[in-house]
Design brief:
heterodimer, A: alpha/beta, Aspartate Aminotransferase, domain 2, Aspartate Aminotransferase, domain 1, seven-stranded mixed β-sheet, three-stranded antiparallel β-sheet, 13 helices, 12 strands, 37% helix, globular, B: alpha+beta, Sufe protein. Chain: A, Arc Repressor Mutant, subunit A, four-stranded antiparallel β-sheet, 9 helices, 42% helix
C-alpha cells in the first residue's frame, strides 16, 4: 500500500508538505517568540510573520495589511460575513449568498437572519452553477454583501467569479455596496487567486487544503472595507483579529501557498489527466453512474458521482476496508442524518444523493492508485448491488424522487397506489 | 489491516469524535452478511414476503420467509437490504436470531424489538438506531403476508394506526413521519399535521410521541 493509503479525499484535507514542515519547525521551539514583544526574540517572530504575509500578499495581489490570519477558513468566512454585516447595518440589511456555500457561510447567515438581516440563498442550476439571472434580480439598495463560493466543496463546480464581480460592480456604481466575498478554500489549489483579476473585495483561504498546516486560514479584506472584528482582545493584526499570531502556522501557510503557486499550471494538467482516467474508467466499468456537478467547469481534482442502488456509507466502509479513502453525501454519513444539502441544491433526488461518492485527488495520487480503485470499485459496487433489493431506473427517476420517509409497516410510498389505482409519485 | 481494526471500534464520528463506533459483530455481519438471497426467488418458493423502507430515506429491506405452519415456526429468513452498515448488519443479525436453534416461534418473532437486535450487535451509534427498527418491521410485514395467505386474519398486526386526533385523523404514524422529516417540536409538527389544534386533549400524548421519535431518530436530547 502507498505511504498515504489510497487517499482520495484531498478536499477534506491534505498531508503536510515536508518543505512546509521544515520551514515551520524552528518556530515551535527555537524561535518561539511572541510577535508583540519588542526584544530580539519577539522581533524575529514578528519578522517571520511579516515575511509570510508579504509572500501571501504578493501571490494574491494585495497589500500585506489587507490580509488577516484566522484559525480556519470557517473563521475567515465568519469574519467576512459577520464583520461586514454588523459594521454596515445602517447601510442595508440584505445579504445574498448561494445554496451551495460552505457551512461557515450558511450557519453564520442563519445567525444574522435571527438578528434581522434578510438572507437570500441563490438557487443553483442542475449543472452546479449559481443562477446569475437570479443574482441580478436580487441585487437592490438594501444589499450590503454578496458571498459566492469560488468552487463548492462537494462537486467542485467552479463559479464564474470575475463575471459575478462585474455584475456587482456594475450595480453598485459609486455607492460602494454591496461588498463581494468569495470562499476560495477549495479553488486555491489549482485556480487563479489574484484578487484583482477575480474582482473580490474579500477572499477566504485555508492552509490545510494546500499541503499546509491545520489551524490556520486567512481573509483578504480590501482596503476601505468597513469591517468589525469578531474576536476582541489585545489588538493584534490591526485589531481585526486579536490573539497571539500562530507564528509556525503563518510561516507554514505562506510556504504552502508559495509552493502551490510554483507549479500550478502543470499541477492542474497533471491532476486533471489523472482524474479523467478515473472518471472515464468508472463510467466505463460501472453501469448506472451519474456525474454530479459541472462536466467541464469543475476543479481538476474533483469527481463526484452517484452510484445508483447502493448506499454511500456502506460503499465508503467497503472501500475503507481496501484502504481506499473517499467521502459521501449520504445521509447515513452525516450527523444530522440529512443528505448533502449541496447535492440537494443541484436538484438531485434523495435516492441519488444516498449513493453519492466524492473522489478528490491530490499530489500523492499516482496512476497506480487510480488503477487500484478501478480494479476494486466495480467489484464492491457489484457486491452491494447484489445485496440491495433496489433497481432504480435511470430514466424513470421521477417515480421515486419524493423525499418522503417510510413509516410504520405501511406500503412504501413509492409503491402506494392512489384512488385511481395508479402509483403515486 | 483488517485484523488490526477488529480490536477496537473503528469508525469514529468525524464531527464529535465519539459515539459512532461499530462493534465487531456489526463488522462481521456487514462484511459477511448471513442468509442473503441474491437472486429473486421463483414464485411460491417462499411462504411469505415483506418489504419496508424507501430509497429516498436511504434504507430498504426486503425479506422472504419459509414457515412451518404446523409448528408455527419460522424455518428460514432470507433478505436483501439497501442501506448503510447498520442497516445491512442488523438485517443479517435478525436473520440469525429468527432462524437459530431450529427456528423461532412466530409469536416470539412478533415480539422482537429493535433493542433486541441492537443488543445482539453489541451496540449501534445512537442516530443509527432507526435502521434496525426497520429490520423488525420488515419481519412483521412478512408475517402479516403469511397471516393473510393462511387466512389467520386475527393475527395481522396493524402498526402505527392509532388515531390521536379524531378531527384531523392524525395517527401515530403521521407523527413519526413528521418527526423523521425534521419536525422535532410540537409547533413544527402542528404546522405539518394540524394535530390537536381543534382537539387539545391529545396534545400531552402527541408531545410524548414527538419526544420518543426525536430521541429514536436523532439521539437523546442534549441538555
Amino acid at each position: 500500500m502507498p505511504r498515504y493509503g489510497y487517499f482520495f479525499d484531498y478536499a477534506a484535507t491534505t498531508p503536510l508538505d515536508s518543505r512546509v514542515f521544515s520551514a515551520m519547525l524552528p518556530y515551535f521551539k527555537k524561535e518561539f517568540g511572541n510577535p508583540s514583544n519588542l526584544y530580539k526574540l519577539g522581533r524575529q517572530a514578528s519578522y517571520a510573520v511579516a515575511e509570510g504575509t508579504k509572500t501571501i500578499a504578493k501571490i494574491i495581489g494585495c497589500r500585506p495589511d489587507e490580509f488577516v490570519y484566522t484559525g480556519s477558513a470557517t473563521e475567515a468566512d465568519n469574519l467576512a460575513i459577520l464583520g461586514t454585516a454588523r459594521a454596515n447595518k445602517n447601510k442595508g440589511s440584505k445579504i445574498i449568498t448561494s445554496q451551495i456555500e460552505h457551512k461557515g457561510i450558511l450557519a453564520v447567515c442563519e445567525v444574522l437572519g435571527k438578528e434581522g438581516f434578510d438572507i437570500v440563498k441563490l438557487p443553483v442550476r442542475k449543472n452546479g452553477l449559481v443562477d446569475l439571472d437570479e443574482l441580478k434580480k436580487e441585487l437592490d439598495d438594501e444589499t450590503i454583501l454578496v458571498s459566492i463560493t469560488y468552487a463548492d466543496s462537494e462537486t467542485g463546480t467552479v463559479q464564474p467569479i470575475s463575471e459575478i464581480s462585474k455584475i456587482i460592480k456594475n450595480f453598485r456604481g459609486e455607492a460602494g455596496f454591496p461588498y463581494f466575498h468569495t470562499d476560495a478554500s477549495q479553488a486555491a489549489g489549482y485556480l487563479d487567486i489574484d484578487v484583482n483579476k477575480l474582482g473580490a473585495d474579500m477572499m477566504t483561504l485555508s492552509a490545510h487544503k494546500l499541503y499546509g498546516p491545520k489551524g490556520i486560514g486567512g481573509l483578504y479584506v480590501r482596503r476601505g472595507i468597513k469591517i468589525e472584528p469578531i474576536i476582541y482582545g489585545g489588538g493584534q493584526q490591526g485589531s481585526l483579529r486579536s490573539g497571539t499570531e500562530n507564528v509556525p502556522g503563518i510561516v507554514g501557510f505562506a510556504k504552502a501557498l508559495e509552493l502551490n503557486e510554483k507549479n500550478k499550471n502543470q499541477n492542474f494538467k497533471k491532476i486533471k489527466k489523472l482524474r479523467d482516467i478515473l472518471e472515464k474508467g468508472i463510467f466505463k466499468s460501472i453501469p448506472k453512474v451519474v456525474l454530479n456537478g459541472h462536466k467541464d467547469l469543475r476543479m481538476p481534482n474533483f469527481l463526484n458521482i452517484s452510484i445508483l442502488d447502493v448506499e454511500g456509507e456502506a460503499l465508503l466502509l467497503y472501500l475503507d476496508e481496501l484502504g481506499i479513502m473517499v467521502s459521501t453525501g449520504s445521509a447515513c454519513n452525516s450527523l444530522s442524518l440529512e443528505p448533502s444539502y449541496i447535492l440537494s441544491a443541484l436538484g438531485n433526488s434523495y435516492e441519488y444523493i444516498h449513493g453519492s461518492l466524492r473522489f478528490t485527488l491530490g499530489h500523492k495520487n499516482t496512476k497506480a492508485d487510480v488503477k487500484y480503485v478501478l480494479k476494486h470499485l466495480p467489484l464492491v459496487v457489484k457486491r452491494l448491488r447484489d445485496i440491495s433489493p433496489l433497481n432504480i431506473s435511470l430514466s424513470k427517476k421521477e417515480k421515486i424522487s419524493e423525499p418522503k420517509a417510510f413509516i410504520g409497516g405501511q406500503m412504501p410510498h413509492f409503491l402506494r397506489k392512489n384512488k385511481n389505482g395508479k402509483k403515486t409519485k | 489491516m483488517a485484523k488490526k481494526q477488529n480490536k477496537k471500534p473503528d469508525i469514529i464520528n468525524k464531527y464529535t469524535g465519539s459515539s459512532w463506533a461499530y462493534t465487531k459483530q456489526v463488522r462481521e455481519h456487514f462484511f459477511k452478511p448471513k442468509n442473503l438471497l441474491l437472486e429473486d426467488p421463483r414464485k411460491a418458493k417462499y411462504d411469505a414476503e415483506g418489504i419496508v423502507g424507501s430509497p429516498a430515506c436511504g434504507d430498504v429491506m426486503r425479506i422472504w420467509l419459509k414457515i412451518d405452519g404446523k409448528k408455527d415456526k419460522i424455518k428460514e429468513l432470507k433478505w436483501r437490504t439497501f442501506g448503510c452498515a447498520s442497516a445491512i448488519a442488523s438485517t443479517s443479525m435478525l436473520s440469525v436470531m429468527v432462524t437459530e436453534r431450529g427456528g423461532m416461534k412466530i409469536d416470539k418473532a412478533l415480539q422482537i424489538k429493535p433493542q433486541d437486535i441492537i443488543k445482539r450487535l453489541g451496540s449501534l451509534p445512537d442516530r443509527k438506531i432507526h435502521c434496525s427498527v426497520l429490520g423488525d418491521k420488515a419481519l412483521r410485514a412478512a408475517l402479516n403476508d403469511w397471516f393473510k395467505k393462511t387466512k389467520q386474519f386475527s393475527r395481522i398486526i396493524v402498526e402505527g394506526t392509532q388515531v390521536l386526533d379524531p378531527n384531523t385523523k392524525t395517527t401515530e404514524a403521521d407523527i413519526e413521519e413528521a418527526v423523521l422529516e425534521g419536525a422535532t417540536t410540537l409547533h413544527a409538527v402542528q404546522k405539518r399535521t394540524k394535530v390537536g389544534i381543534g382537539y387539545p386533549e391529545c396534545l400531552p400524548k402527541v408531545e410524548e410521541l414527538i419526544r420518543f421519535y426525536r430521541e429514536k431518530y436523532f439521539g437523546p436530547d442534549i441538555k
